[in-house]
Amino acid sequence: MLSKNKLVSIVIITRNRAEILKDCLTCVFVQDYSLFEVIVVDSSNEENKKIILEFPKIKYIYFANGANKMPISRNIGIKNAKGQIIAFLDDDAMCQQGWLREIVFAFENDHRIGGVGEKVINKGISMGKNPAVGKIFNDGSITLNFEYDVGKLIEVDWIAGCNMAFSKEVFKKIGGFDREFKGNNSCEDNDFCARAKKAGFILVYNSKAVVDHLVFKRDAIKRPGYFDKQARYYGCRNLSYFYIKNFGLKIAFIKARFLDFRASIIIFLRSPSINSFNCLLFAIFGYLVGITKGIPTMFKTLYIKI
Question: Which residues constitute the domain of residue 286?
Fold first, then answer.
């Protein structure tokens, strides 16, 4: 039987997407599990504040200059959370009915569970070729596939930042999110999960807790894409920093990056342009910066101050 005495703190990070935020909050406040609080960490203009007034029960925190600072925004939410469970929800993630109930159910299934990832339906984005759900491999490759209906709780290596929840005990043991993940902040969720697992917690995926992720375009730095030099730089930088910090400088990782470079060079030679050349250089530079930042922290940075 599901316990209804666990307070869940729902942390929503937002910036300049007032109407989307309104839809997200509307979905949250009709959940059939009623013991929760909502914390909105906002770095927007005045538009979002008008939306917040429609939801007086929200704990609202304004974070000036918060663009591209997802780890810091998450840590602000953690500091202000009172719940035994802290759930993170993107402002463009619309939770379906039963989402919150299924999160609490998963935590009650096994006391060793420290984190729960939920089903993410990404509009217009197909799943990867590798069917594994939430895995991190020795060569640094990472699978998502958080759209799969698996029918039961399954253990995973990481859970997606747009829709994830952790017990309060995890934060007591490993602290908060690493501010070193810059730019598009990619891999900040992978890093937190890797540290949680090293601390002895189990992470699971529950496909019965569902959100529709609208994946709206952001007004800041994009997620990794080949023909965007900023995205290439930060995607490569954050990946190499995350991997080396948590798993060391392995031959499989170095080999995979060499193959990435070779593929990028082939793409450039087939369609040479200044932009594609810049993207190649930014990717190489990003990997090098990530490696230099990752090596001093190898196997050392488990607890990070919130």
Answer: 229-297
